[in-house]
């Protein structure tokens, strides 16, 4: 029988022992700190407690709609002090992968983006050219001229070598048609992340994975996903902070991204919170594939 997670909520001794085991906390954002723009009560105080104990906090989010700078603004607006260096989003992870690991030879390294400004900002910061994304020229119905020009290639950019799919609040038939045809021409298929749903207002909405699934269905290809649980992201974070993985804990609300990310990254521990996507019965089920080491009802339970 697999080891079930230790429940920390309400057990001050267990909480103190837990906190003493780690120097670094990788904190997921959506579903842990907040739900959309609703900050969970006690979040600011919990982060203050961690920092007062000398803990390094890194914000690690799969939400690619914002850049690190835009996330810093959101954290500040929520009363959470942070530096851009403490923030790792899937848009940044994807831009690093494209620019420093995939390194397609220009000019065939242009990216067709399904996503928001967070991806565009991070690609720009790595000097990667892109089209699509938030360009208003794509926010319209497809026309007969589009069908013709996409089919014969005259409306496609020959330098696009990558399709990068993230959470796109303005996805439409025209954008999916362009993305599909770039993939059909051999472009690399990347995704910032594959989360099925996005927590917002204490409910769930289409996630990035529910955008890219259209292209998976059309092409039969699975994208390389650069957010959690990808270890490319973990390696980037470790590279920047040079932390001891055994003294590092991943805190998240999703078993299939956050907790898997921590386990596969061989971190010293993982803490699940029940304010987002995953529920207790998922890890209590017979043969559950992902089981956190610890869990609390909410992050602020760490304050005892
Ligand atoms: O669909 C998405 O992109 C994700 O649900 C979402 O943004 C996850 O963000 P995280 O919980 O990793 O902060
Ligand atoms: Mg989350």
From TrEMBL:
Substrate binds at residue 228. Divalent metal ions. Mg(2+) is the most effective. It comes from the Eukaryota. Keywords: Hydrolase, Magnesium, Metal-binding. Coiled coil: none annotated. One of its GO terms (cellular component) is cytoplasm. InterPro entries: HAD-like_sf, HAD-SF_hydro_IIA, HAD_sf, PGP_euk. The active site is at 28 (nucleophile), 30 (proton donor). Its cofactor is Mg(2+). It catalyses: 4-nitrophenyl phosphate + H2O = 4-nitrophenol + phosphate + H(+). Transmembrane segments: none annotated. One of its GO terms (molecular function) is metal ion binding. Pfam families: Hydrolase_6, Hydrolase_like. This is 4-nitrophenylphosphatase.
């Amino acid at each position: 029988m697999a080891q079930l997670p230790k429940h920390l909520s309400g057990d001050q001794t267990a909480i103190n022992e837990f906190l003493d085991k780690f120097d670094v906390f990788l904190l997921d954002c959506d579903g842990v700190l907040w739900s959309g723009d609703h900050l969970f009560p006690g979040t600011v105080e919990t982060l203050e407690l961690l920092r007062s104990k000398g803990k390094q906090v890194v914000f690690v989010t799969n939400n690619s709609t914002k850049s690190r700078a835009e996330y810093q603004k959101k954290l500040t607006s929520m009363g959470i002090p942070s530096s851009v260096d403490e923030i790792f989003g899937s848009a940044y992870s994807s831009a690093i992968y494209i620019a420093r690991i995939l390194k397609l030879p220009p000019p065939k390294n242009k990216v067709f983006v399904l996503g928001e400004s967070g991806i565009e900002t991070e690609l720009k910061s790595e000097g990667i050219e892109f089209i699509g994304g938030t360009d208003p020229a794509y926010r319209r119905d497809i026309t007969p001229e589009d069908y013709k020009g996409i089919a014969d290639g005259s409306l496609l950019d020959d330098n696009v070598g990558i399709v990068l799919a993230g959470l796109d609040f303005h996805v439409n038939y025209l954008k999916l048609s362009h993305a599909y045809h770039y993939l059909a021409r051999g472009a690399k298929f990347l995704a910032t992340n594959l989360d099925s749903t996005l927590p917002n207002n204490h409910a769930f909405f289409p996630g990035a994975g529910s955008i890219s699934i259209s292209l998976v269905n059309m092409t039969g290809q699975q994208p390389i996903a650069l957010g959690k649980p990808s270890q490319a992201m973990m390696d980037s974070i470790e590279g920047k902070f040079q932390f001891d993985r055994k003294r590092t804990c991943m805190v998240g609300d999703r078993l299939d991204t956050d907790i898997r990310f921590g386990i596969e990254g061989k971190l010293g521990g993982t803490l699940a919170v029940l304010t987002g996507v995953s529920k207790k019965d998922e890890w209590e089920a017979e043969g559950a594939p992902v089981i956190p080491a610890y869990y609390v009802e909410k992050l602020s339970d760490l304050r005892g």
